[in-house]
Amino acid sequence: MGRLPILLLLALVIAPPALALGESCSTTSPENDAQHQCCMDKVAADDQDDWCQETYPELYSPPLVGSSCGTVSPDSRKECCQTKVADNTQDDWCAEKYPELYDPLVGSSCGTVSPDSREECCQTKVAENTQDDWCKKHYPELYDPLVGSSCGTVSPDSREECCQTKVAENTQDDWCKKHYPELYDPLVGSSCGTVSPDSRKECCQTKVAENTQDDWCKKHYPELYEPLVGSSCGTVSPDSREECCQTKVDDNTQDDWCKKHYPELYNLPGSSCASVSPTDNGQYQCCVDKVAADDQDDWCQETYPELYSSEDNTADYPWMALVRGPFEDCAGSLVAPGYILTAAQCVYNGSAAAAEDVSVWVGGKWHTVAAVLANRDNAQFQEFENSKSQPSWDIAMLALEEDSNASYVALPISDVPDMGSWVDQTAWQVPARTVETAQVNVWDGCPADYLWADQFCAGGSGYLQACPADKGAPMLQSNTQVGLASGPGCDGMTSNYGAFIKLADKGVLEQITVWLNSREGTDNSGLDDNVRAWLQEANTYLYGRR
Length: 546
Known about the structure:
12 strands; 17 helices; six-stranded antiparallel β-barrel; disordered N terminus; elongated
């Protein structure tokens, strides 16, 4: 037999017979990996073979539900894992082999991380105030808290609104109180309904005590506005106090608070101040009010002729204010529609006077006070015995309940006054009737150790002795208030000089800007556009920027 026929015979013996269509690879000889090759041919020819799919599942893509991408064709595995991640289907093999699909770069969505890590990832996003639309869609419960849950668990861009709702609904949330304290500590003039629920009654009690109107308080704590028999009208709702006092007067019932705050109810036209109690300078103050109201009182004219000896010139000084407080009468100046600047010693004596104990005359009428603002942490003027190297902080601001229509005085935006320059000193000659002025020189003639760090000295032959009613009186230069009367004042010794707070001192001026901004954003800011423009200029002077 020749060589060629022998080789053909061997080939026939070695080569497996071809399978008929539909015949299973299980019938193929298992030698030389023939069954595996047969199954690959089946897959390539799209010829179904259940035996192959069961024996070699890795040849079939996509895998059966629940099977690992590690069992599919190698060139299909990454795509398989991407599908698993997108479908939120767990596959440990994918997490091990393609970790980049499960650990997103900063800023990427939690939808790209391992499915079993996605909720935790979204919780982290919410906690870190990081926006992720995928999280918001797939885990809305993290953004819309159940009743009683904290606003700290909602979408970062919804948290402030959530906390505002909590406050409005009187629902406690410690997270809100920590992150949005401004919702719980209202600015002067804002409602107690916006503070922490457990602080609201105390807030309303303070409002009532300070004679500050708050409709929310009146609705929710009416008992604070209806005084018990015999109690003072100072404890009722601010808009009911005058009516309460009128009732007291009609019933001939004594109320010292009413007598102090509504003296006009006790000094009716034609009645005499002689009937007023002489204690606490009451008769003199009654006569001052009579003169200011142009109400004739022969007893006053005979007893206090100095009140009638001069003409009323207050229209020439519309910003000049008379401050009546619990310690002494003082002067002041209207520096914004709703603010009076005065000396702190007029309204501060270890603690600030209560607002209801202070009233202000300016622009021809009396005003009630909403708040007494003094630098309580730095006040050095008490008894004027502190180190002169420190500021005295002898300034205070009175926030008015109602804006004044009178013209206010401008404040400085540069370092004035200069040494040797002339300034216009003012003082009350007759309170609420006659303003006295003098032109004096800014000089260094005050005795050593006389001035505090925030004061300057001025004086000369025309100097007006700063007696009690003149504390806080404004000093002007070119229609700008540059100082206010400070220092011990009348001490029984005649002098031709005095100490004045320098308003351009940066510490002083910064404090003034803080006070003027204290009610901004409320219904009664006390400001107008001109004052706001000045505040921008003041910021440039103080900080070198607008």
